[in-house]
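The material for today's practical consists of a large collection of protein records. An example says more than a description, so a record of this kind follows:
***
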Amino acid sequence: MGIRRIEKIIYRIIAQKRAEASDTGDLLSMLLAVQDEDGSRMTDKQLRDETITLFLAGHEPPRTHSRGQSGCWRKSSSGEKVL
């Protein structure tokens, strides 16, 4: 699936959520409800960027995270400085 197709799907979902105008408890509903100090809300492009970031982050291989985390825990439990 190409990025253009993913964007098209995401923009369609954003438009549907905006039209519903109700909080269904999902992440997109929460992002739509966020307001800046001046009262402005996220643009469709900002919502798309956040959604794609989360979508792609969800495809990160779990082994990468668990290896790094286990190494961090191992070092910290031995008293070794981690950072």
The mean pLDDT is 79.
